[in-house]
Amino acid sequence: MMLGTVFLSAVLLPLVAARPEGRHPGSSTQRRGLGMLAVDQSQFDFLPYELRDICFDCTRPNPDALYSCQVKFDWFDPNSTKDNNVTACSCAYSWSWDGVTTEPGAQNTFDPKAYIPCLRDTPVYFEMALKWLAGANNFSLAMSHHYKDTSIEPNSPYSWFSTYAYPQLSLPLVLQEENSMTHYHPGPIFAKIVAID
Predict the structure, then answer these.
(1) How far, in Å, are 51, 118, 191 from residue 78 at the CA level?
(2) First to last CA, the chain
(3) In the chain, fewer beta carbons within 10 Å around the N or the C end?
């Protein structure tokens, strides 16, 4: 009996307390990071996400207006091919920007905490957020992919998990006009997976 109590208090309770708060793929402002494990501290060896056709495009009707901007790309996760029919998707994130302001606000309406779904085939989903923006050719994404992998622990409820990457991107300028700019890279650009939960 004593051994069971020690196991419960020393192992199970900290595991339960460390689990992230309940997530639902429909929520775009959920907190992430609770219960995350850095990949370099785990026994896993993930291949990086592959991004292709990465485009940062902004247009405005006149020089006094905010740009209407969009980051879009194709995303493939080579780690999820064993158990999942959906291993890739396309992402597009839109916001308004004055072309200069780096902090979120009225002149730069991106929200670094608002993940948007790129693809949802519940319970599998891909989602992303624009994490920070220093300029059109210097920005970072937050990426999360939730999927099943039975190679880790077959027939276990813990075979569902999420992986995370935070790539910093610098795309070449391909078009610059008074009211538009486009930065583009055909890829692949590899986004290292840095955390799991």
Answers:
(1) 11, 17, 12
(2) 31
(3) N
